[in-house]
User: What shape does this take?
Amino acid sequence: MWRDEIARSALLELWEKGRLKRRKKQGKAWDALSLLTWTKPTSRQDELGLREQGRDELEALLDGVFPDWRRFVNEMKRDGIPLNLQGFLKFREKRRTAKISRPASDDEKEILNHHTAKALSGTHSKVSLSTSRRRKLGSVEVMGDGLIRLRPNAGLIVEREGVEKDADLFVRFLGELSVTERALRTGTRLKGIPPRALLSVENLGAYMDVSVPNGWMVAHVPGWNTTMLRLLYGSFPDIPAFHFGDLDPNGLRIIRHLRKIRPDVRWVVPPFWEEELDEAFCSYALKREWPPDIDLENAPPLVRRLAERNLWLEQETLAMDERLVTYLDDLLGPGTTVPPGQAS
Assistant: This one.
């Protein structure tokens, strides 16, 4: 228990003041101290006092569980910080903030993963990165360190600091091209022959197995994790973008979310799938309810029919449709128009 910083603050306050009021955060420490022979209740409710002969015992305990406590006391007094719970928490935050300022090289901006940043500016990595905590980081850039998996098109080049590598080289060695957020934000570029189109795919199985026309790039974008797709869109702002996802409530929400990032992204729901809803798809469709308040306006006809019948259709069912390659290719043909329901 005495390894806990809050418990240690109770020992320091008792040492400094000779008394300790019971507080919720320090409750376990207070209870443990109340059982020792060298503490005693005072005339005040829920307050412990230190017996005169108990100071040596307290210092021995501090030496055992908090070896550098005297340095902490000297630094806190030097900075005018009181030796109580609030003062200890303030001093701890000050020390954490001081650790953030690691020198970066002249040409490299300091970058921290958002969990590391939260742990340094707060109490642990699960706290929120509030405005005050973000201010403690100064000019440090915070990022989620995402990763995007790509099936690149032929002729794509990966370039960094003047060094160029054929993306196909990574595919031959690693099976695909994986690019990190930190790389894209710090100078790695995708260049060479641009893809004819970009297809983002929600589920891993469909990403691995879906067939696409020559020259297309396929990106795995799991669920709502769209930070990396936003960066990819930025790399190819003029390339037609399509999304292949589940035909269910979440799939509808995701495509609408993507259109807030890039309004012209098209949802891959070929009209011929609607014709086969009764014949082929019902045997694979999941019987699941659609929320009654979900907005189906401008959704593709197949999606509306699935919602009416409370059916969900996973994209793996559709990924191997041999007609899909021709359909996608036709979308880029001369004079191609977007089928009804696709522009929503």
